[in-house]
Amino acid sequence: MKRPFYILLLIISTVLQAEAQNPAWIVPDDQKGKISLLKFTPDMAKQGEVIYMKNCQSCHGIPTKKNFAAIVPSPGDLSEPIVGNQKDGELFYRITTGKAPMPEFRNILTEDERWTVISFLRSFHKGYVQPDPEKLAASAGRRIKLSMVYDTAKRKIMVKAVELTKEGPRPAQGAVIVLFVQRYFGNMQMADPKTTSESGYAGFEWPQDLPGDKAGRVILSAKVSDPTGSMQEAVVRDTLSIGVPTDKPALTDTRAMWSTRDKSPVWVILTYTLAVIVVWYFIIYIILSVLDIRKIKELNL
Amino acid sequence: MDENTVNNRDEQEPSKPSRRNFLKNIGLLGAGVAAGAGALYSGDIFEKKKAATGESKVLLTQDNKLVEVDSLEMRVLAKNPTKLMLEKGREGIPGKRWVMVIDLSKCRNARRCIAACQDAHQLKPEQYHMNTLQMQDSPGTAPYQMPKNCQHCDNPPCVAVCPVDATYKRGDGIVLIDNIRCIGCRFCMAACPYSARIFQWTTPKDADKHNGEAYNVELNVPQKLGTISKCLFSADRCREGKLPYCVSACPNGVYYFGDENEDAVTNGTSKETVRLSKLLRDNGAYQLMPELGTKPRVYYLPPKNRLFPFEPSTD
Questions:
Q1: Residue of A nearest to B237 (CA)
Q2: Which of B75, B104, B121 is the last residue of a domain?
Q3: Both B161 and B71 in a single domain?
Q4: Domain for residue B307, yes or no?
Q5: Please, what is the Cα angle at A225 between A219 and A227, to 5 degrees?
Q6: Is residue B312 in some structural domain?
Q7: Do residue B264 and residue A251 have CB atoms under 8 angstroms apart?
Q8: Residues B29 and B151 reside in one and the same domain
Q9: Predicted TM-score (pTM) of this structure
Q10: Statement to judge: residues B48 and B100 lie in one domain
Q11: What is the spatial distance between Cα B54 and Cα A239, in angstroms, rounded to a whole number?
């Protein structure tokens, strides 16, 4: 009778301990209100399922199947009410920032992709009603248009943010701009995010030693980073010839001891050829000498 | 007899070359040519029509370009797929020099990299292209976990000793093995100072299942009995613009992978891209046994400010 009790106690204490080691995951208040600007549709949920299977399924399992991974803290089944009762903004924040061992998806999934995953999860939450995105778009979400130029004198990338209002375009002050440069496996953030000035400009110091392609071209992209959702996502991409022209030869182009025959060092080829010639010279010399001996023998007869 | 000869002469007479016969023959020939040309032309038109109605397919060419091809115009190359892959695998990706950075402060021996690698390269659980070693530099210092794979040296001793040109270095820095050329002499294993290479002493994993599959030199699969295998920096994934299997499988952000020519490496967990030179400079990066002059393409960041306590491996 006592043993089950002890086992239960042990389980409870382990769970409590696990809880104690992982303090509550608090979502900042200003993030909770964030909502998707896209209407959740069955089509969107289908796209979300594809992204979910690639990025989330290995730990969270398939929703409603309760086949999540056995790790601490438990990832849990995302179709449960504990997830369903959270606001969209809370789910979005948790996906974006992550918390060990859950990775952050900030740089892995775009904002739209994260909302797509949420739309997939929402298809399992009974009684969920999506806040009307159109209302929010009308009340908040300033529409921003970006453009960029390179200021040669200041050696700065100047990103200009223009707000499109009903009265016409005007410089957008206070927009947080992030600048990226495209690399083979992803976009690299240049410097820290900058806030636009009164005239709508944000200046990014351009490192003079960043490699570009053969002609020194680099592909840049700037975007508005606004976690509160008061500004709509805006992106500008541009190709500028401001990188260091880089055209390094392939590593197999130089002559090396380890390389194939036609790329071996010249001294190896020369020494080897010389050695072969010397050896053959002596072989032929000996053969000729032997023939000479025969000739002498014939003369004596 | 004479009569016969005369008769014969009478019969031969009409075939005697005459103006009329010549014109007749020319006329026949002309008509034949016209009919033949007409047939050829209509056949050509038919072929074109057929092609136009065929289903179009989008294909990826060898130089990574998407092209649309009509399904009726497609011809299957008689070339052996294994040969094609061998030729492709000899050439590196132009303009690239791959480099890996391993942050020892983040490794807690989750061994996901190992699992992903073994899965991709059809390795048994005891065969490692990538392994985590438990290190302790001296009795007074703290132990740590160190993932170790092939260092893809720029001065590779393994390539230098290979007698059959089976293991080779590519222009983009990756050292690969052609298991079809490999004779299993294991000179390269002896030459490698990093013990990065394994030998297939026994029948490889799932050999029956993969029997007869085309050999992919950029994956080393299917694995071949009696030959060498080792880390390939996931050459197949690099070609697709994806991070290597181990790098993207790590849950703790240990691995960075990228192109030295671009001076950028991308973290496999957070997908954050950072400048390689800055990362190496700020963290006091080092290489394994640089005194041997092998010029490795893998850098290590020292295990300082560790995120996880050291836990000895259970297996």
A1: A185
A2: B75
A3: no
A4: no
A5: 155
A6: no
A7: no
A8: no
A9: 0.70
A10: no
A11: 39
At which residue do the structure tokens 């209509």 appear?
B42
8 A C-beta contact, residue A223 and residue A178: yes
> For residue A99, how far is the Cα from the chain centroid?
18
Task: Give exposure, A272-285, as e/b (b: 16+ Cβ within 10 Å).
Answer: eeeeeeeeeeeeee
| Nearest Cβ partner for B266 among A186, A253, A259 | A186
Q: How far is CA A258 from the centre of its chain?
A: 35
Q: What is the CA radius of gyration of chain B?
A: 33
> pLDDT tens-digit profile of A133-146?
666 555 456 788 99
Say which residue, A112 or A237, is predicted with more confidence. A237
Pairwise CB contact (< 8 Å): B171 & A251: yes
pLDDT tens figures, B67-116: 887 777 777 666 788 888 898 899 899 999 999 999 999 998 889 999 99
Chain B interface, Cβ < 8 Å to A: 92, 94-97, 154-157, 159-160, 165, 168-173, 241-243, 251, 257-259, 261-264, 266, 269-275
Contact of A97 with chain B, judged by CB distance below 8 Å, is answered with no
Domain limits, chain A:
26-134, 141-240
Which H, E and C letters describe B137-163, residue by residue? CCCCCCCEEEEECCCCCCCCHHHHHCC
Average pLDDT across chain A, whole number: 84
Query: Are B100 and B135 contained in the same domain?
Result: yes
Tell whether B3 is covered by a domain. no
Nearest CB to A184: which of B259, B274, B275? B259
Q: Within 13 Å of residue B145, how many CA atoms lie on the same side as its CB?
A: 23
Partnered with residue B133 across adjacent β-strands are B146
The runs of H, that is alpha helices, within B140-275 are 157-161, 187-191, 235-240, 245-249
Q: Are A184 and B170 within 8 A, CB to CB?
A: no
Query: Does one domain contain both B160 and B295?
Result: yes
This model of the complex carries an ipTM of 0.71
CA A232 – CA A137 distance, rounded (Å) = 8
The β-bridge relationship of strands B98-103 and B298-301 is: parallel
Cα of B263 vs its chain's centroid, Å: 24
Coil vs helix vs strand at A164 = strand
Mean per-residue pLDDT over chain B, rounded: 87
What type of residue sits at position A179?
L
Q: Is B309 part of a structural domain of the chain?
A: no
B215: pLDDT strictly greater than 90: yes
CB pairs under 8 A between A and B: 89
How far does the CA of residue A106 sit from the closest CA of chain B (Å)?
8
Question: Could A184 and B165 be called an inter-chain contact, meaning their C-beta atoms sit closer than 8 Å?
Answer: no
Q: Do A252 and B169 touch (CB under 8 A)?
A: yes
**Count of Cβ atoms closer than 10 Å to residue B237 Cβ:** 19
CATH of A26-134, one of 3.40.50.300, 1.10.760.10, 3.30.390.10, 1.10.645.10: 1.10.760.10
Between CA A151 and CA B250 the distance in angstroms is 41
Domain match, B63 and B123 both:
no
Instruction: Give the residue from B58, B75, B92 where a domain finishes.
Output: B75
Spatial separation of the C-alpha atoms in residues A185 and B262, rounded to whole Å: 10
- The residue among B160, B290, B152 whose CA lies nearest residue A256 is B160
Q: Which residues form the domain of B141?
A: 81-301
The CATH class that applies to domain A141-240 reads mainly beta
The H or E element that residue A23 is part of is none
Mutation to test the B interface, candidates A107, A185, A255, most B Cβ within 10 Å: A185
